[in-house]
Amino acid sequence: MRTTSAAPAAATVGIVGGGPAGLLLARLLHRSGIDSVVLESRDRAYVEQRQRAGILEQGTADTLRGCGAGERLDREGLVHHGIRLHYDRRSHRVDFPSLTGGRSVLVYAQTEVVKDLIALQLSGGGPLLFGARALAVEGADTGRPVIRYAHRGREHTLACDYVVGCDGFHGITRDAVPAAARRTYERGYPYSWLGVLAEAPPSCDELVYAHSERGFALFSMRSPTVSRLYLQVPNGTDPADWPDDRIWDELDARYATEDGRQPARGPITAKSVLPMRSVVTEPMRYGRVLLAGDAAHIVPPTGAKGLNLAASDVTELAGAFAHLKGTGSTRKLDAWSDSCLRRVWRAEHFSYSMTTALHTEPGQSAFDTRLQIARLDRLAASPHAAAELAENYTGLP
Ligand code: APR
Ligand code: PHB
Fold it and tell me: Does residue 160 fall inside a structural domain?
């Protein structure tokens, strides 16, 4: 396995962040013969174990297959043809193929996507530096932007033709865009998610999204023996206030349907609280600095769009760089930000809709709860309403 000890000083594309966006971009560029350097501030173990979402749209899975990261995905990934909605003690299944002309999704954890992409990059891609923290991106409006970064106790600069910020919501690349040149749209939510990993078989063979006046719950999975579970909790919740029994009791209460089935229990191996937010930064490009994935946009996880949006951003961006390399034309690069933002805002609306339909706000009126039930009844009764959910969930063209 090739590791990179030297600190590179130049690259065609400098990538800040070695999460899904940065790693996939580097892989796609490599396939087009375009050199890049990935700078990741954390160590490999941290990045590979960071619990995130686990739903891949077909397009995302196809992109991963196309860049050589599909072997384990196809061996271990779980193909899902629908989801369940639990509400008002009822259970309703939304079937994807019949509503979308044959589309489905793949359940395959982001941790596994990241492991696969790191292995590929280290075995045959360009430099991927762990423990390399970008300090600043300078010269965005020049022909040669640079990334100043710290690595192994020393400061270095990486001179690039282009810099792509794939450094997530807390990254620094966004700061390379002057405040006057960018606009941020955001919306908060009066609740968070308590995310739990449990050695317990999933309660159902498909994901269950549960609306309850006690709050939302999501029953997902990582394998036939490992469940990934989420509970809506108040903002500022401390995971330590949720011992295992309390978690299981609350999951039972929110899963509740007429048939009385309850999730199987087992040891909880991880728990953490994640905030809910919707954020979009426009534009996603300034000069020769571009922002992709969470560095440019955040969605509440209800619609499972975060990873898929990041993959769409960098797939289109890699195509634009390949077009530039092949033709000398920046036409696709110049159109990239607007093209991504149309997709991003669609996903923002879908994620917002799923979130507000299924979560119960603190102090929510009985009237608003009845509106939610009416909205969910519409999804259960109308293939037209259900198709809107199914098309967005499985990924629009
Ligand atoms: N220098 C180098 N690396 C950095 C810096 C920095 N200054 N700041 C952040 N990073 C790294 C983080 O350590 C992280 O590994 O950038 C990476 C950003 O990865 P993500 O936050 O996962 O964002 P992205 O690659 O866009 O993937 C989006 O991840 O957060 C989830 O829900 C989100 O599923 C979506 C996906
Ligand atoms: C997950 O499996 O982590 C997951 C699945 C679907 C979502 C969010 C998270 O909407």
Answer: yes
Q: Is the CB of 306 under 6 A from ligand 2?
A: no
Over pLDDT 70: what percentage of the chain? 99
Respond yes or no: is residue 393 known to be catalytic: yes
Select from 193, 177, 292 the least CA-distant residue to 236.
Answer: 193
- Please indicate whether residue 47, judged by its CB atom, sits closer than 6 Å to ligand 1: yes
> Environment class of residue 323 by beta-carbon count within 10 Å: exposed (0-12), middle (13-18) or buried (19+)?
middle
Q: What is the pLDDT of residues 148-167, one digit of tens each?
A: 999 999 999 999 999 999 99
Give me Rg for the CA atoms of the chain: 21
Domain co-membership, 349 together with 366: no
How remote is the CA of residue 313 from the centroid of ligand 1, in Å?
14
What is the residue with the minimal CA distance to atom 7 of ligand 1? 134
Q: Is 53 in the pocket of ligand 2 (CB under 6 A)?
A: yes
Tell whether pTM > 0.90: yes
Residues 6+ apart with CB under 8 A from 139: 145, 146, 288
**Residue 307 near ligand 2, beta carbon < 6 Å:** no
Q: The domain containing residue 272 runs over which residues? A: 189-276+361-394
- What pLDDT digit, counting tens, does each position of 4-39 carry? 447 889 999 999 999 999 999 999 999 999 999 999
